[in-house]
Amino acid sequence: MRSAYSTSLQFFGPHTPASLAQRFGSPVYVYNETLLRQRAREMAGIIQHPGFRASYSTKANANPTLLRIIREEGLKVDAMSPGELALVQAAGFTKQDICYVCNNVDAAELALAAKEASYVSVDSLSQVAAFGKAVPGGRIMVRLNPGVGAGHHAKVVTAGKNTKFGVSAEELPELVALLRQHNLTLVGLNQHVGSLFLEGQAYLAAAEWLLHTAEQFPTLEVIDFGGGFGIPYNKYENTPRLDLATLGAALTAMVSNWAEKTGYAGQFFTEPGRYVVAESGILLGTVHAVKNSHGKRYVGTDLGFSILARPMMYDAFHDLEVYTPAGEARPELTQQVVGNICETGDVLAKDRMLPELREGDTIGVLDAGAYGITMSSNYNQRLRPAEVLITQTGEAKLIRHRDTLEDILRPYQIA
Ligand code: LLP
């Protein structure tokens, strides 16, 4: 048994993980409403300034029930595709709440975004010109590349020299000319340096750079510092948390002083995704096969990378819990926890010391609420799992049905 973390949070309410997996089907994403509300509130209040708003980044988790909870906690929202737009609208977000932060989209999408969102951010001169044609005389926000990036893996560093994102400082004169040419008003600047920082210095330095750059643009209504707030994924090693109080106080002081100095009376945004939802999700799965091969113990589960892509895509670490049938103790062994996808890279946990896993065991993947279900796929034509919410009163509510074979067949036109 290895469940101290979820037990300490009473994560599953009155339910056992095995009963949830049985009732809703394995694998299943389970979310805890109380924890989600707590993390959302922490982000909603990170900067104490009248013009501040936290804009939740929908890409982390787009389930409308969770989005509604996040909205109730006072966050606004970022969307970046028509699909995300439809889901945030289904959750009750209105035009004033929505900031559309897109990249490399067509004219129809730019026009849709301008109609449905209060702010639209584009991230290249080419897209500024496209926006000018699609929405003549419109209001536009531009994503800048502050020149330095950060992130937990090269694939999620979104600023600096090796990224497709943003307009760089050297391009600003050309940006100004383009805005004039298309009669566009620059109403916002945003940036996002990368995903998952646990220390605030780089975020603060980038924020300072953005404020300094903003001084050239008197028409701004929004200055948006981006997301990236990290969570510790090693729950059983007590990795320190991001010190939000210190970071928030530094940001508050920075924006207040700057607003006072410049007379800016507009808004400041952040764009947190992971921090809000990651910890409120645990992915449950089942062990179906165990074997020893060339000196290694392979534990075969239904948690392939079609269900959770992060370990495969970024070598990301997620802590695992083991819920043995009668809660009995088991010897600790080094094990390879793998999925059911036909690829050798389908590894959830490599050389992991865990209680000896056996067929029929239920396991839990911690911190799976962000970039879990949203990055899942039907690869190998497997069904994406159900999502279940443990409400504040302990009820287990189905909030997304598990794919059916009809869902798999629906898009096809068999010619
Ligand atoms: N704003 C923009 C413009 C973004 O591109 C992102 C994330 C966010 C905000 C939110 O970042 P967060 O606060 O969640 O770090 N799939 C990767 C993360 C990719 C992040 C992409 N952009 C992962 O699973 O680690």
Structural class: alpha/beta
| Helix segment tally | 13
Radius of gyration: 23 Å
| Overall pLDDT confidence | 96
**Major pleated sheet:** 9 strands, mixed
User: Shape from CA axes?
Assistant: globular
Unreliable runs: none
Q: How far do the termini sit from each other?
A: 52 Å
- Give helix % range: 25-40%
- What molecules are bound to this protein? ligand LLP
CATH homologous superfamily of the largest domain, by name?
Answer: Alanine racemase
CATH class of the largest domain: Alpha Beta
Explain how this protein is built:
By secondary structure, the chain is of the alpha/beta class. The chain folds into 2 domains: 4-30 and 279-403, Beta Barrel (Lyase, Ornithine Decarboxylase, Chain A, domain 1); 76-271, Alanine racemase (TIM Barrel, Alpha-Beta Barrel). It is built from 13 helices and 18 strands. Strands 1, 11, 12, 13, 14, 15, 16, 17 and 18 form a 9-stranded mixed beta sheet that branches. It is globular and about 65 Å long. 44% of the residues are buried. The structure holds ligand LLP. Ligand LLP is lined by residues 57, 59-60, 101, 156, 158, 192, 195-196, 226-229, 271-275, 310, 314, 371.
